[in-house]
Design goal:
D-Maltodextrin-Binding Protein, domain 2, single chain, 2 domains, six-stranded mixed β-sheet, 48% helix, alpha/beta, five-stranded mixed β-sheet, globular
Length: 328
């Protein structure tokens, strides 16, 4: 039947027939996005991930002309929300806010990770380079990080530190600092930064190495006191805080990064449009100022540089974490 049908159709007729299928697909690509977009943040509201994602969503929904709904999908650290997007329909309408924690650190931490960052995601672009700020309650008797290390050495297991969950950037930053200082502390994981801060300020937990995007306002508002930042250089937004190497307590640098990722195999039209919009967004001096205002630094990379950067970070942290034994 099929051969008989096509045998009776001229070459010109076949071209016309094919165009009936091609034109709707082309039109669909050109119309993207024609409905709202879901932007998944794999951590609770109020933390550094959430703050940065909402900043980007606010700008991009105006550029794209479609609403972007930020959905906080939590659970299993950052794994639940990230895996949800890895398995989502790759149609360009479901994004993941990806960063050091869920894209790079998880690859080294979990042997049974349900997704593969390099196989299951395509980076659209990165927007921010950040750091972590080590804080304590205002009434803490420890005035410097050297004081903290000295007390921890004399009192193994007496100090506690918070994080937004096992394997989060906060956890890795503090666990690495702990290991390099040669001390033993107790890790207390929380479901998000807000809950952790409540206990830090109340004195129920001693330390919190949080994203500077969240910590900055609390440090400036004198809700908590800071010891140091994890960046390579002092931050223009918190110039009085030393870097970890400057404290003389540990020689360690940890810089976070974050941006937007799509499920692999997403339509090229959506990916290319998104990359164009990211470039437009990151060329705005106003956006750079807004990023700096939350304690981060703008990160401007080409698509190729972004892909190379993400791959290098995944490889680097996978090796570091497995070599250190911080794996599950």
């Amino acid at each position: 039947m099929q051969n008989t049908f096509f045998h009776g159709v001229s070459r010109a007729g076949l071209i016309v027939l094919a165009s009936l299928f091609v034109v709707p697909l082309a039109a669909q690509a050109q119309s993207w996005p024609d409905r709202s977009i879901k932007f998944v943040v794999p951590q609770p509201p109020g933390g550094g991930f959430d703050t940065m994602a909402r900043l980007m969503a606010d700008r991009l929904q105006h550029q794209l002309g479609q609403s972007i709904v930020v959905e906080n999908r939590t659970g299993a650290g950052t794994r639940a929300g990230t895996d949800y997007v890895a398995k989502a329909t790759p149609d360009g309408y479901t994004w993941i806010f990806g960063g050091l924690s869920n894209i790079a650190l998880n690859m080294g931490l979990y042997k049974d990770l349900p997704y593969d960052s390099l196989r299951d995601f395509t980076p659209v672009g990165l927007a921010m380079l950040g750091s972590y700020t080590l804080v304590t309650r205002n009434e803490s008797p420890h005035k410097t990080l050297k004081d903290v290390v000295a007390f921890a050495k004399a009192n193994p297991g007496k100090l506690t530190y918070a994080s937004a969950g096992k394997g989060s950037g906060q956890h890795i930053a503090m666990a690495t600092t702990e290991a390099l200082a040669g001390v033993m502390m107790v890790h207390v994981p929380y479901r998000g930064a807000q809950a952790a801060y409540q206990d830090v300020m109340a004195g129920r937990v001693d330390l919190f190495f949080d994203s500077t995007a969240t910590a900055k306002a609390l440090v400036e508002g004198k809700s908590v006191r800071a010891f140091a930042v994890s960046s390579r250089k002092r931050l223009p937004s918190l110039p009085e805080l030393p870097t970890l190497p400057e404290t003389g307590a540990v020689d360690f640098v940890m810089e976070s990064w974050s941006g937007i990722f799509l499920p692999a195999q997403s339509p090229p039209a959506a990916l290319n449009r998104m990359r164009d919009e990211m470039t437009k967004m990151m060329s705005s001096p106003d956006m750079h100022e807004r990023i700096r205002r939350i304690g981060q630094e703008p990160l401007v990379l080409s698509p190729k540089e972004t892909e190379d950067f993400v791959k290098a970070e995944v490889v680097r942290w996978t090796k570091l974490l497995r070599d250190s034994g911080l794996t599950e």
